[in-house]
Specification:
The chain is α+β, with helices and mostly antiparallel strands. The protein has 6 helices and 4 strands; from the N terminus they run αααβαββαβα. Strands 2-3-1-4 form a 4-stranded antiparallel β-sheet. A hairpin with a 6-residue loop joins strand 2 and strand 3. Helix 2 crosses helix 3. The protein is elongated.
Amino acid sequence: MAFEVKAGLDSVDWKLLELLQADARLTYAELGRRASLSPPAVGERVRRLEAEGVVTGFHASVDLAKLGFPLQAVVRIIASGKYSEQITAQVKAVPEVLECHRVTGEDSHVLRAAVRSVDHLENLIKHLAPQDGDTITSVILNTPVEHRVVTRELAAGEA
């Protein structure tokens, strides 16, 4: 299924998006220098991209291990449809769950969780296990690709 790239994004918008995805802390002056725009023009474009919902926020990346969560895991939940909403509500209340995705296929949900230890992970899995279903868990060893920048070429199917 192909999706159209958001209309109205020109090459300067894409340049700003690529720069912001790589480093959201860049000042408007630095963004302007790299995109050949004045700082006020950068501010106007960024505000427009936010208003159009293209830019949805600015986030800090943190080292979870330094915050006391040295283990991350992917937890796949396999549950019947009647438990799907219950699982979604339950997962939203669990702070260790960093991401929750509703998916197609055998799994109903795929989660990424951060935990302090293997025991912590085991307790989390027991807590999340559906009444009528199962879980499959994989510990994340490392993350070779994280926060990939979406480019104009990728969005246009040219990458």
